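so my prof wants the structure for this chain in the tokens format not the other one, which i didnt know existed until like an hour ago. anyway here's the sequence
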Amino acid sequence: MINKLSLILLGLLLTTSINYAQKSPSKVALSSLLISLEKTYDIKFSYSDDDVENIQIVAPKTGISLNALLTYLNQKTFLQFKTLDNRYITVSFLNKTINICGNVLENQNLMPLALASVKVNGYNLGTTTNTNGMFYLQNVPVKSVITISYIGFKNLEISAKELFINPNCKQLYLEESSEILSEITMQKFLTSGLQKSTDGSTILNTEKFGILPGLIAPDILKTIKILPGVESVNESISNINVRGGTNDQNLMLWDGIKMYHAGHFFGLISAYNPYLTKKVTVTKNGTSSVFSDGVSSTINMETSNRITNKFSGGAGFNLISADAFVQIPIKDNLELHISGRRSFTDFLNTPTYTNYFNRSFQENSIVSNNVNNSESKFFFYDYSFKVLYDLSYNHAIRANFIHIKNNLDYLEQYSNANNSIEENSNLKQENLGAKINWEANWNSKFTTNLSAFVSDYRINSSDYNKDTDQFQTQFNNVLETVVKLNTVYEFSDIFQLTNGFVFNEIGVKNTTSINAPTFSKTIKEVLLKSAFYSEIEYQKNNTYARVGFRANYFDKFQKFIFEPRINIRQKLNKTYSLKLEGEFKNQTTAQKIDFEDNFLGIEKRRWILSDNDRTPIITSKQASFGVSYSKNKLYADITGFYKVVNGISTANQGFYNNTQNFNSIGNYKIKGIEFLINKQTDVISTWLSYTLAENNYTFGVFNPKKFANSLDITHSLSAGLNYNFTKNLKASIGGILRSGRPFTKPVNGNETIQNGDKTIVNYDNPNTENLGNFFRIDVSGSYNFLFSDAIKATIRLGFTNITDRKNTIDSYFVVDESEENNVKRIDNYSLPFTPNLSFRVRF
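here's what i got, hopefully its the right format
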């Protein structure tokens, strides 16, 4: 029995082996096979050893004719077998064509790339990939090179021989591309989602954002305030001060559209939805020549620019507003991205809203007790959409639109001896932006981007002042149109040249009207300007350099401004690096700041345009040098900087002194040192930053001519700690301690003086006093969980100013005869202890 069983098993094994051998014939080296065939057929093959090297082939059936043999060899290899006579046969690549195929995938998540370009270099031959990322080409020259390209990814070049269909199609992986200035040197900086790029700029990747003290969302403008040298003297993101500059000196771009409005709730919330904004780049110095305006910094916000062919989105709410975003694939080459957010503050009050409201409307008619009855209605919203359309594998169209709006209606009712009076005040503030651009990859080295955008900013307000029985309206409008052509030529992987031309038209309109006495004034200015820019970028091993210039021409003034830019970084070894940055910049718009008691105590900044006389073009010169250390997840950086900004006027500095009505042109100079140290482990990230700066004005109209800048923060110290309890549970605590900002006091003992028939405050020398130190501690926590495999959720808690410290952020004086010395000091305070909560889902 055992012998029979053994025979059966042996028979099965032999049968299986024979079948396997039949199904999977072994391959032999072509060089060895040709030697064998020469003996069998009494022929002689003429070939180069290099041509047949490393070629494997299944041996042909025995006994076939010579013609059948040559046909077989031609089909199964990419060589050309050609008979010279009855005995000699040449083997070469000459005029040989083959059929090729491939499967193009993303290298990260292995998703197929549809409509990728497949071109045969030097031949009028090509195709695109299908929805599965597959492509097929026939009659391709065997010695040719294939270039595979896809917008947003690095080109791949591969020989046709490697794609020969024998036995199946080769998988090809494309790497996502990025410009040199966007390449990352630090994947994690302070928290996940904050990164350092090669050129020294800081990048906020909102998709990977972790947690920061007090924040319940990756609020774009609140997040950048954690960086050294970036302050907000009144804790408002509408007043971000980079290295001593005013907020209007920051160039703010949303998908290439210049925006003139930063925040909701009058600066307490960023106006840009972070969940559709993929990346934010902040540059303080050494700016690329591609960018103009913004003599203090550049804040460049970019939304997703790739067609994902996947339906995805998210929604959430906090104690102020609710929002949602969605990405909708329409076709393989067409996709729509939509986002929207609206506050519910006009019909629901929360503790967070109450604190925000009281913080925004301190010491003005809205919160005063001088009216019998008052009612306020405030809300904000923003929405945006983006159309992504790939015309072909190397041409793409992108169109964007964004609308941001704040709306305040305030009704006050009071009675006098004769009658009851009801007056309504309102303020509407909005910014619309639209852009279209065409991106073209002409070949593997040369790309162009042609774009045009329009930005329309408006603030429309009306206010009744019962003390003067005046009703006034104010209107400010900025309309900017830009056409831009940008070209990039890559000489090699380490060297590229960028050139571009920009045509810009900007118009600014300001209207003011008063009913008693009747007065109306409208000022409208239009300025045409154009610019050419060029820069080279070099990056190899431990060296990065970007050197360029921008030539600006102002048609109305017949004036040229030339701006050199430089950014050099050198790694000395794996631990230490040096950096040198420098730039000249200009801007033609600035904000005029009215006095605190002018309109409801809020948002009295109005944009004005340079006239090259009373309002000159603002120019800046800046240089910085620094050293950084990076080893074992410990990063330290120290940078010294010096900046001079010329062409500022008293009108856009918000002075409170005896010369606040005078128009004088001056400058400010700031020099300082920024220091940052950050230590990270698998569960902890802790940091400490310190900025020491000296910031001084020079104005000829003042006495003394040189005095402290209103934004001078001599010392600023901040620290934070992030702790990951688990992968999904995280907490963060941090604090800031900084010097108080300067302000001006009245003359002691002579606080008021007569100006005609009007009593005014008699201010002393400007900015000789300082407010008390600012100190605040914030805490936040987050927890991630899954509703299902496709739906992710996050809950975040944030607590601002947990010690409930009463920080004075601004002080000024008004005439009040009921007060001692006839003046009253008005203090504005920072947010008190304020909780907030958010809940989000993403699919």
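also thought this was worth mentioning. Residues 2-23 form the longest helix (22 residues).
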